[in-house]
């Protein structure tokens, strides 16, 4: 049964007659619904954390930032706001197509063009979120310093407050300072697992639910490899436009490390051994 608050949010924002509301299998922090109307179909995302401000503002901002690059399609935003302390976002529903080889070539080409988008510092003009956790984006000129202070240290702090121990984290920080590639900042999606890549009915790649910032572009590649679902046989299409720095394969676990720490803080013990394995990989080899 659909909650009355959801009905009222839809009635408040959608003028088209509603035909059907179906709950989708969505993310870990939000409830997601498909709202079918006579003329259009929408996605409704709600967050029940009773936030004072709209928790979807950073998602709207991230989608807008990606859209402005004219690389990937992103869903059009109908509206966002707060109703009865429930944050909500209503956006275009993307009809699904099939992911052919030509789709993957286009995806990799678009990703390279997205990553070419740059600015002087690493970071972003505002903090945003990664899953249910805040993500900090203070502008910093040095990538290693940014990755340590804005990505890893906050996650370590939260994990340590829950009782997890990381005896070699300072050694890991030293490795990062000495071995990260000196590339310019790239605009990244920031949470590029397969569920955040859609294919439209005309076979165009479409990105959703970003955690954007200007960072090492290897972060996106690392996340793509962490959970799978991407066709790396077409990666040459990326390299032809924007070749990756020498040694990028060696750094993939380092940048997966951030996302594994995030999962440790959200989901708990199941990710602790993987965290320790990555620390050991860089501090004991």
Automatic annotation (TrEMBL):
**Entries under InterPro entries matching the protein:** Fructo-/Ketosamine-3-kinase (IPR016477), Kinase-like_dom_sf (IPR011009)
Q: Which residues form the signal peptide?
A: none
Q: What GO terms are given for molecular function?
A: kinase activity
Coiled-coil spans are none
Give a single Pfam family match: Fructosamin_kin
Q: Which keywords annotate this record?
A: Kinase, Transferase
Domain of life according to the entry: Bacteria
Please tell me whether the keyword ATP-binding is annotated for this protein: no
Q: Can you name this protein? A: Fructosamine-3-kinase
